[in-house]
Design brief:
Blueprint: E1 11-15, H1 19-25, H2 30-50, E2 55-62, H3 70-93, E3 96-101, H4 109-122, E4 128-136, H5 138-154, H6 165-169, E5 182-185, E6 204-207, H7 217-228, H8 238-242
Parallel strand pairs: 1-2, 1-5, 2-4, 3-4, 5-6
Helix pairs in contact: 1-2, 2-3, 3-4
The chain binds 3-methylbut-3-enyl trihydrogen diphosphate (2 copies) and magnesium ion.
Amino acid sequence: MPETPNPTPAHVAIIMDGNGRWAKQRGLPRIEGHRRGVETVRSIIDAAKELGIRYLTLYAFSVENWKRPQDEVGALMSLLEYFLKRETATLVKNQVRLLAIGRTQDLPEFVRRQLEAAIAATAHFTGHTLVLALNYGSRTEVIDAARAYAAAVAAGKISPDDSSWETFSRHLYTADLPDPDLVIRTSGEYRVSNFLLLQAAYSEFVFTPVAWPDFTKADLVAAIAAYSKRERRYGQTSEQLKTVTTD
Ligand code: IPE
Ligand code: IPE
Ligand code: MG
């Protein structure tokens, strides 16, 4: 099979999974896995920048994760606050813009405060963007987008006759982001768990057995290497892609 190398993905999105099992295997409480997972987050943000990835999206908390035991949810929120507080200076130093997608308005006030401060402190950077998916779920995103879209139609800003993916997708949380080129899920699970369902329509997927606390820059490099060999056809044939068009 001919190699069809893709350039470095502009946007990598990661479903960071396996913290709990990583801890359990070591006889540790689940929260210890989440703590180690935060350290992985820090190293992968740096690695992504070094590798020239312009957008890195990390699935940190899903709308379904509220169903976990209350003490785990509380610990995750505290860790999130701690991460944002500690990481803001590093993001500024490395000139990384922070964005969040999800129903962030429903996060606890102490988390929202840190999140808003970090977003404001990094808003002027343009080279690299870190997107945290927080209280995120694709289905709630569609509901929120449909509501905003309907309001725009009712206000006469959009004609329903002009409905298209372009006009609708401007109402998603990801309106200002390119679609992910590569989606990685760690810990050996083969599912998308309500993550970027629409945006990943033509993403390449890499699943790795490595649990998130053990995920390293080398694993990211390996995922990108696998991605670079894929042929992204977007519904066309392989032969069409090899035909050089001159217009
Ligand atoms: C991912 O690890 C972190 C979050 C979903 C917040 P998990 O906590 O899902 O770890 P496992 O899947 O139970 O091992
Ligand atoms: C997906 O992981 C959500 C995040 C990584 C934040 P989960 O561990 O919550 O997913 P399921 O429940 O195994 O599908
Ligand atoms: Mg999990």
